[in-house]
Amino acid sequence: MTGAHDHDGGGGHGHTHGVSADSDKRLLTAALALILAFMAGEIVVGVLARSIALISDAAHMLTDAASIALALVAMRLAARPPRGGYTYGLTRAEILSAQANGITLLVLSAWLTYEAVRRLIHPPEVTGGMVLGTALAGVVVNLGASWLIGRANRDSLNVEGVFQHIVTDLYAFIATAVAGLVVILTGFGRADAIASLIVVALMVRAGAGLVRDSGRIFLEAAPAGLSPERIGQALAGRPHVVEVHDLHIWQITSGMPAASAHVLVALGEDCHAVRHDLEHVLEQDYQIHHTTLQVDHASEQLLTIERRHCDDPHGPAHRRN
């Protein structure tokens, strides 16, 4: 007997986060307007003050604005219903957006590293007062933007990518403010470039994390915190289950894990009841709502000799210990 069941925990993705998609869009749009207004002023002040830290902050804010705009476009695409060959819709558009944000942070950090090192070797004259004033204003603006985006659904890697951009920029302004104060008090012009290098370290950390997490989804790796080996053993340990193999666990998009497996059930037992039990385990214990389980009765031959049920198995077979 074979049973294949695709279970989605309640309409759409089967997940609720307490924040609607429309609310996310409004929050991100408000943050975008705030950042664009401040960025324009910061570029002017950075050029006048000859501050690489301020200019780097402005460049980062430009990527912030681009990341928010990209996230908004990705949200619109991801909301489209499945059609044609896109059986999951365009939900991974948000993962593309997150990966683009991560790559942008890494590329920008390389350019800023070059500029900061160059200015460490040949430091220009920096107007500390203008740097300090603008940086403090930037702290306020980024606190506001961080608060807005922090209220959105950060379970989405798309939103988390934007949030990482904004928080990194907040740290950058704090470092720049400290550098401006050092320049005012001591005249040490290299403090500006040192602050920029601190920002670069934060950008690399955030960018690498986004590229890693989005890459895991594209490569269909198991979500962080979910061990296929442990889940396979847990399923194989359920009543009347003889073997679980071809177990695959992946993420369709952030916050939407999925699983599929071939399950062999003891002869004479109810395959449907076993399948429902396994679906319940996956949903309640591992928060996997989207499951496809093929369920068959184990043959007498399989029960008496060590042989796989499938001619082309993928991954290990899990059996009751």
UniProtKB/TrEMBL annotation:
Main localisation: membrane
What's the family?
Belongs to the cation diffusion facilitator (CDF) transporter (TC 2.A.4) family. SLC30A subfamily.
| Keywords tagged on the record | Ion transport, Membrane, Transmembrane, Transmembrane helix, Transport
The transmembrane residues are 27-52, 95-114, 126-149, 170-188, 194-211
Instruction: Tell me one Pfam family matched here.
Output: ZT_dimer
Q: How does it sit in the membrane?
A: Multi-pass membrane protein
InterPro entries, sorted: Cation_efflux, Cation_efflux_CTD, Cation_efflux_CTD_sf, Cation_efflux_TM, Cation_efflux_TMD_sf, CDF/SLC30A
Species for this entry: Actinoallomurus oryzae
Per UniProt, residues of the Cation efflux protein transmembrane domain are 28-218
Q: Under which name does UniProt file this protein?
A: Cation diffusion facilitator family transporter
Where in or outside the cell it occurs: the entry states:
Membrane
What SUPFAM superfamilies does this protein map onto? Cation efflux protein cytoplasmic domain-like, Cation efflux protein transmembrane domain-like
From what superkingdom does this record's organism come? Bacteria
Q: NCBIfam families attached here?
A: CDF (TIGR01297)
Residue ranges occupied by any Cation efflux protein cytoplasmic domain in the UniProt entry: 229-297
